[in-house]
Amino acid sequence: MRSAIPAFLAAALLLASCADPERAAARAVRRAGPAQLRADAARLSKNVFAAHGPRLHVLRPTETPASFQQLMPQSVNAYPDGFALTLRVRGRLRSGIYIMPAGLDRAPSVANGEQFTPLADGIYWFTFGH
Predict the structure, then answer these.
(1) Measured between alpha carbons, how far is 33 from 48 in angstroms, rounded to an integer?
(2) Which of 36, 37, 81, 127 fits 95 for a cystine, CB–CB 3.0-4.6 Å?
(3) Does the pTM exceed 0.70?
Protein backbone atom coordinates (compact mmCIF):
# COMPACT_ATOMS: atom_id res chain seq x y z
CA MET A 1 0.00 0.00 0.00
CA ARG A 2 2.93 2.34 0.66
CA SER A 3 4.10 2.01 -2.94
CA ALA A 4 0.70 3.22 -4.23
CA ILE A 5 1.04 6.59 -2.50
CA PRO A 6 4.14 7.77 -4.41
CA ALA A 7 2.59 6.63 -7.70
CA PHE A 8 -0.58 8.54 -6.83
CA LEU A 9 1.44 11.66 -5.97
CA ALA A 10 3.41 11.38 -9.19
CA ALA A 11 0.18 11.13 -11.19
CA ALA A 12 -1.30 14.10 -9.33
CA LEU A 13 1.80 16.20 -10.06
CA LEU A 14 1.69 15.22 -13.72
CA LEU A 15 -1.97 16.20 -13.96
CA ALA A 16 -1.30 19.48 -12.17
CA SER A 17 1.45 20.39 -14.65
CA CYS A 18 -0.88 19.61 -17.57
CA ALA A 19 -3.58 21.77 -16.03
CA ASP A 20 -1.34 24.87 -16.12
CA PRO A 21 0.18 25.13 -19.59
CA GLU A 22 1.45 28.66 -18.93
CA ARG A 23 3.61 27.47 -16.03
CA ALA A 24 4.87 24.54 -18.11
CA ALA A 25 5.70 26.96 -20.94
CA ALA A 26 7.66 29.19 -18.56
CA ARG A 27 9.76 26.19 -17.49
CA ALA A 28 10.33 25.22 -21.14
CA VAL A 29 11.45 28.78 -21.96
CA ARG A 30 13.96 28.71 -19.08
CA ARG A 31 15.31 25.36 -20.32
CA ALA A 32 15.59 26.58 -23.92
CA GLY A 33 17.22 29.86 -22.87
CA PRO A 34 15.38 33.17 -23.42
CA ALA A 35 18.44 34.83 -24.97
CA GLN A 36 18.86 32.00 -27.50
CA LEU A 37 15.15 32.09 -28.39
CA ARG A 38 15.24 35.86 -28.95
CA ALA A 39 18.47 35.71 -30.99
CA ASP A 40 16.96 33.01 -33.21
CA ALA A 41 13.78 35.08 -33.51
CA ALA A 42 15.81 38.11 -34.67
CA ARG A 43 17.60 36.10 -37.38
CA LEU A 44 14.41 34.36 -38.47
CA SER A 45 12.41 37.61 -38.58
CA LYS A 46 14.97 39.23 -40.84
CA ASN A 47 14.94 36.24 -43.19
CA VAL A 48 11.16 35.68 -43.24
CA PHE A 49 10.10 39.27 -43.79
CA ALA A 50 12.86 40.04 -46.29
CA ALA A 51 11.56 37.13 -48.38
CA HIS A 52 7.82 37.39 -47.78
CA GLY A 53 7.04 41.04 -46.98
CA PRO A 54 5.26 42.54 -43.95
CA ARG A 55 2.41 40.11 -43.32
CA LEU A 56 1.65 36.98 -41.36
CA HIS A 57 3.65 33.98 -42.47
CA VAL A 58 3.05 30.39 -41.27
CA LEU A 59 6.40 28.65 -40.91
CA ARG A 60 7.03 25.04 -41.86
CA PRO A 61 8.88 22.94 -39.25
CA THR A 62 11.95 22.92 -41.53
CA GLU A 63 12.05 26.75 -41.34
CA THR A 64 12.09 26.97 -37.55
CA PRO A 65 15.28 27.01 -35.45
CA ALA A 66 16.04 24.14 -33.07
CA SER A 67 15.42 26.41 -30.06
CA PHE A 68 11.80 26.86 -31.23
CA GLN A 69 11.38 23.17 -32.12
CA GLN A 70 12.39 22.05 -28.61
CA LEU A 71 9.31 23.87 -27.27
CA MET A 72 7.25 21.43 -29.41
CA PRO A 73 4.81 23.92 -30.96
CA GLN A 74 1.80 22.74 -32.96
CA SER A 75 2.44 25.65 -35.33
CA VAL A 76 4.67 28.72 -35.65
CA ASN A 77 3.36 31.98 -37.08
CA ALA A 78 5.66 34.90 -37.93
CA TYR A 79 4.35 38.42 -37.32
CA PRO A 80 6.29 41.65 -37.92
CA ASP A 81 6.86 42.04 -34.16
CA GLY A 82 7.44 38.40 -33.13
CA PHE A 83 6.68 34.70 -33.40
CA ALA A 84 3.66 32.88 -31.99
CA LEU A 85 4.48 29.28 -31.10
CA THR A 86 1.07 27.70 -30.61
CA LEU A 87 1.11 25.07 -27.89
CA ARG A 88 -2.61 24.69 -27.23
CA VAL A 89 -5.74 24.97 -29.39
CA ARG A 90 -9.26 24.81 -28.01
CA GLY A 91 -11.86 25.67 -30.61
CA ARG A 92 -11.01 29.19 -31.79
CA LEU A 93 -8.78 29.85 -28.76
CA ARG A 94 -5.02 29.48 -29.34
CA SER A 95 -2.35 29.93 -26.70
CA GLY A 96 1.38 29.46 -26.43
CA ILE A 97 4.68 31.29 -26.37
CA TYR A 98 5.22 34.63 -28.16
CA ILE A 99 8.90 35.47 -28.81
CA MET A 100 10.00 39.00 -29.63
CA PRO A 101 13.21 39.23 -31.71
CA ALA A 102 16.32 40.32 -29.80
CA GLY A 103 16.71 44.09 -30.08
CA LEU A 104 12.95 44.70 -30.20
CA ASP A 105 12.27 46.02 -26.72
CA ARG A 106 8.61 46.94 -26.78
CA ALA A 107 5.60 44.86 -25.81
CA PRO A 108 3.78 43.02 -28.62
CA SER A 109 0.93 44.79 -30.39
CA VAL A 110 -2.44 43.96 -28.83
CA ALA A 111 -5.70 43.81 -30.81
CA ASN A 112 -9.07 42.04 -30.68
CA GLY A 113 -8.84 40.73 -27.13
CA GLU A 114 -5.36 39.24 -27.47
CA GLN A 115 -3.57 38.76 -24.17
CA PHE A 116 0.15 38.65 -23.39
CA THR A 117 1.63 37.67 -20.02
CA PRO A 118 5.40 38.07 -19.55
CA LEU A 119 7.38 34.81 -19.09
CA ALA A 120 10.90 36.24 -19.56
CA ASP A 121 12.44 39.35 -21.11
CA GLY A 122 10.80 39.65 -24.55
CA ILE A 123 8.95 36.34 -24.22
CA TYR A 124 5.24 36.10 -23.40
CA TRP A 125 2.43 33.60 -22.87
CA PHE A 126 -0.20 34.55 -25.48
CA THR A 127 -3.88 33.88 -25.83
CA PHE A 128 -5.55 34.67 -29.18
CA GLY A 129 -9.12 34.21 -30.35
CA HIS A 130 -11.38 35.31 -27.51
Answers:
(1) 22
(2) 127
(3) no
